[in-house]
Amino acid sequence: MISIVITVFAVLFIMGNSLSLLQVYGHASPITYDPSPNETIDAIQSVPDKVTISFTESPEPRASSIKVLNSNNERIDKNDLQVLDAQKSLSISLDKSKVVPGTYTINWIVLSKADGHITKGSYVFSVADGSIQNQQNQQNSTEISSGYSKNVTTTDNVILTFEISPNKAGQNTFNLSATHTNGTAVENIKNVFLEFNNPTKNLGPIVDTMDKINSGKYSSIGNYLSQNGTWEIKVTVQRIGDYDINQQFDVKVK
Ligand SMILES: [Cu+2]
């Protein structure tokens, strides 16, 4: 009897330890970002000297990188990657002489020292300039027929309408509507995610969660289309009690 109790305790002890080992030794997921994803910095003078990303695990510097790219896909960082090991973070200095108002993409790749796995991702931030913003707003209001719009009917008879306005590099508004073929809105949606990849320029995945506007209608505003070119935009519609809808839209941004 005593030996059974000891065995049960031993098994529980080992299980408890291996569970905590799984939590401690994992791949490196990002926790904090500076600048933040989708942040608009109001002036060039306010742009930080460095981009810093902290992770759940220590990055291996020889197999990790951060690149900061302008809208012409040119690096504006100083290629001086630093690991602040105590904080499990990576940082890289910006060449401030190359910072102008516009949209920037941060590409990061990290090899976790803990489990040897590679994680990667991208995100965008923008630098505003009051006068340029005003000019863009005026341009946008005069261009009535610009933008992207596409309808697809999925295999389980959901019609997805995906729209991007103005569909130019920089800030865009993304709209998604999901209706049944009889015209009624799809009601059982839990979340709608967007994932942006630009394979020819090696940008992405950049991810975003859309906001619910109405039943079956979702919207998002951001600078995810940070450069010209062909973007693969994956839309994932998570439904309650139904399979996820996965639909890719290939979008040309000029
Ligand atoms: Cu891992």
Mean pLDDT: 88
Structural class: mainly beta
Distance between the termini: 76 Å
| Count of discrete structural domains | 2
Provide the helix percentage.
10-25%
Low-confidence stretches: 4-23
CATH class of the largest domain equals Mainly Beta
Task: Give the name of the CATH superfamily of the largest domain.
Answer: Macroglobulin (MG2) domain
State which percent range the strand residues make up: over 45%
In sequence order, what are the helices and strands, one letter per element?
A: HEEEEEEEEHEEEEEEEEE
Ligand species? copper (II) ion
Largest sheet: 5 strands, antiparallel
Strand order of the largest sheet: 9-10-11-15-14
Bulk shape: globular
Description:
This protein has two domains: 28-129, Sandwich (Immunoglobulin-like), CATH 2.60.40; 147-253, Immunoglobulin-like, CATH 2.60.40.1930. The termini are far apart. A five-stranded antiparallel beta sheet has the order 9-10-11-15-14, with no helix packed on it. By secondary structure, the chain is mainly beta. The chain is globular and about 55 Å long. It has two helices and 17 strands. Residues 26-27, 112, 115, 117 line the site of copper (II) ion.
